[in-house]
Protein: DUF1116 domain-containing protein
Organism: Streptomonospora halophila
Amino acid sequence: MSTSRLLTDDPVVVASGARLLSEALAAQAVPVADTGFRPPMAGAEGDTAADLARVMADPRRAAANAEAVRRLLAVRPRLVDVRPAGEALGLRRGSFLHAGPPVGWERASGPLRGALMGAAVFEGLAESPEQAEAELRRGGADLEPCHHRGAVGPMAGVVSPSMWVFEVADAETGRRSWCSLNEGLGAVLRYGAYGPEVVERLRWMSEVLGPLLRDAVRAHGPLDLGAVLAQMLQMGDEGHNRNRSGTLMLLRALLPDLLTVGAPASDVAAAADFIGGNDHFFLNLAMPAAKLMADAARGVPGSTAVVAMARNGTDFGIQVSGCGDRWFTAPALTPEGLFLGSYGPEDANPDIGDSTITETCGLGGFAMAAAPAIVRFVGGDAGFALRTTRSMYEITLEENPAFQLPILDFRGAPTGIDVTRVVRSGILPQINTGMAGRVPGTGQVGAGLVTPPAECFTAAVAALALQAPEPSGAPAAG
Amino acid sequence: MSTSRLLTDDPVVVASGARLLSEALAAQAVPVADTGFRPPMAGAEGDTAADLARVMADPRRAAANAEAVRRLLAVRPRLVDVRPAGEALGLRRGSFLHAGPPVGWERASGPLRGALMGAAVFEGLAESPEQAEAELRRGGADLEPCHHRGAVGPMAGVVSPSMWVFEVADAETGRRSWCSLNEGLGAVLRYGAYGPEVVERLRWMSEVLGPLLRDAVRAHGPLDLGAVLAQMLQMGDEGHNRNRSGTLMLLRALLPDLLTVGAPASDVAAAADFIGGNDHFFLNLAMPAAKLMADAARGVPGSTAVVAMARNGTDFGIQVSGCGDRWFTAPALTPEGLFLGSYGPEDANPDIGDSTITETCGLGGFAMAAAPAIVRFVGGDAGFALRTTRSMYEITLEENPAFQLPILDFRGAPTGIDVTRVVRSGILPQINTGMAGRVPGTGQVGAGLVTPPAECFTAAVAALALQAPEPSGAPAAG
């Protein structure tokens, strides 16, 4: 405000912190603009305010975050191949990848256990889910997070050697990421179902769908996933729980090659039916595209940018650019939302899956303003979708110019979660997600909204504080 | 406001009409809610205010409009066939349909002349566009509006016997409507281009695309266009200048049948390429679906609902339910918007095409809130898209529960334009549209925003006033 306006305009009070002051002023008819300040989050242990001050004072922080986000935004993800997971990820018989941070059988959630049992039967390691369960309980399998192999998996995220995976590569650097093929909704492995129809579908996907997609993708050449994602945001998708237009654009792009690779017409028709009948098929391409973007931001010393958010159904974990491959975990919360059929809140497992890699890159819950129709799937209303995206700008470092949100006049999606902004503002990343049944074998029970537990972020800030250089003038510790 | 609130709350002045009062109050810091009232439109002839009062007093009006809209909303449009226009519409050699109200060669606009010249060459009636022009100038062809045969055509809307048309039927009543197949953008017949590549494309569409689509549609069985339109509004399309998701959903729906009707794989691949490469392909299905809906509302005595809005590039015409097949016309306005390449406003022809049948049914400009990305094609910003849809509720009779707009919390699209509301409010229907080059042969020059001329609506009100029963107590005229 210029001096002249200060003299001529009515004064307005800007209030921050406790509401007592602004309420007293408002009661006296004094205009008050409340900034909505909240004190920083209280950490589960240690002195979060001091940690935060230490990290905020780290002279490397601004440049490190700019570099992390620059790398993330420079990624050009392209679908380049479809391959068996064993070959693509170096997975051996008896090894299984899973979603989220590391977890063993003892602490594994119901849907993760169910998916492992189904995968063991699919791999021929057991003749029945019961036999598989006994085998898994006595430790007869190697479990490892997808993220540790450059991969991501939705919900339980179980990947076994005979499953096929999409291979996505960065056109700039050649780096790669992988994700399984989407099975559809309902009673499917990733939601913890393991019945005969689940295993049968996985067999068809490995024997027919995977090889056919491989031939079509190789004939097509690299398929620009960034361009598809950009279009999706203009077509009511947010890339996590709405992938309708993305799936249709994938089908359109691969169609000429599917028609001409010489596969039996019945296989092509079955594949087109399967893909066209599953509005979530593109999720498993949005995820490895986001994984490739997020991975580019890893390992920048001093950066407070989140490079992974993932859940195994028991724990929620995040990884931060300046903290290497360390996971900051806390018990996963349970989503609230809309339920299928007669299922209710008591049937829902806590939050599960690597699909939060989409939110890590400005998609999913962060881009809900572009996909207001999603509220019929996850709950809320159109205003909630708009408010959610707007509030995510408060905790992110950049607006992605490639992911434009038309309803916000083509503002770029809020991208690059900053743990210091989360802890300072108390605003947690908004995730929209499917909900798996708590009991192994159930499948999907609904979809809803959830956030990470705050402790992941305060723990990350504490770790960053330990690495931050001593503030100048203060004596060095130890 | 209850009596108690009247005593305790601060008074607020509601002002209507001339701004003088509200401005004076505002200058004295008195809160004023301005209702935005404007006096009714001045008619080109006659006493519009008296006509309006007479029509508003027509005791049949409310029930007649309810019936007209009830019929419109009850239509279930389904694609049932693809046929040659000659056969489907009873068109003979030397006959041409065109968009908009009736017009002869002398008053025909450049793009309509260009399209007629191209169609004459395509039909083998002339060997060159120049020869065709001479033939048409001397009256050697029958011209008739598409609307007079239950059909609609985008832009110039020229249909000749050898072109193929979509046939759409109402599942409730069996009534039918027709529309040509979409040629794509740029130098195409409907934008007035007539070069060899235009005629060549029309030949391929009649020899390959039409028969292939016929076979696929017949194998598929009736395809529910209402369901596709409902989905489109959740996927960033408004059904007039954005039909991206609609086109993809059509392709997905017909794909299994395209693959299995026994056509050569190269034809199927070419058709899939042509449809998949033209984001406007579904427009030519949105239009006959809307035509079928609007036609259902025709002929209700006393109804003030608009049942057609159409332009031939010279005149804009509307038809009203209570006025039979009479056209109310006035000179078409020229759209303002965004231009392709080096084209500018001086290259644009006045408003042209039957595609305003979409706005007549709550789609297009009326549903722009569902398609904010369209502003990059026609101009404006996201706020304009939202305001446009909101203001269209002011001039419509109903909200279509089948066409839900997610960003407005699934409010039904504003449907059933009421000429009395248009004249009372001074709010004209908002149309978004492609722009054809003024000079025959040019093709598309841009896309933009336009309204009908106000005179169409005042003339309709005058005609309705003549038909309205004498107000009780007044002496009968004549």
